[in-house]
Amino acid sequence: MRVYLSGGMKSGWQDEMPKIDGVEYFDPRCDSPQSKSAIDFVSSDIEGVKKSDLVFCYIEKDNPSGFGAAWECAIAKENNIPIITVWEKDYIDPFFACNSLYLYSNFEKGKERLIRYVIDRVK
To answer: What's the distance, CA 102 to chain centroid?
Structure first.
């Protein structure tokens, strides 16, 4: 199973994702050519989403906009790829609320759901 990690690029939350047998993470920080042109890394991110089985989206409280994650999740929705979202902001964006298969306000709970989701599909 391939899981695309969508969300902020600065805090390193991606490094805290659980190691799960049979799961490969697409982490845009290292799996997309960030040092090249915008078109290169955006195209890589889009393809990364399309080739994934699940998107795990984490919008931290201090994420300034979540705009990039919204695009990634829109591509996932368009391609019938389920989304698990962790939304820490005080308000809940209707796009994420309506398009996430699961929506949490706590990162640990979101990771627990990811593990259960994978286990349910591996059976």
So the answer is: 12
Question: Which one, of 48, 47, 1, lies nearest residue 21 by Cα?
Answer: 1
Is-above-0.90 flag for pTM? yes
Number of Cβ within a 10 Å radius of residue 104: 18
Q: Which residue has the tokens 């600065």?
A: 10
Concatenated DSSP letters of 44-113: HHHHHHHT-SEEEEEE-TT-S--HHHHHHHHHHHHTT--EEEEE-SSS--HHHHHH-SEEES-HHHHHHH
- Residue written as token pair 């969508």: 6
Tell the residue number behind the tokens 């949490």, with chain if given.
104
Four-residue CA torsion sign, 41, 14, 110, 66: negative
Query: Tens digits of per-residue pLDDT, 50-72?
Result: 999 999 999 999 988 888 999 99
Query: What residues have CB less than 8 Å from 109, skipping those under 6 apart?
Result: 86
Structure tokens at 121: 């599909």
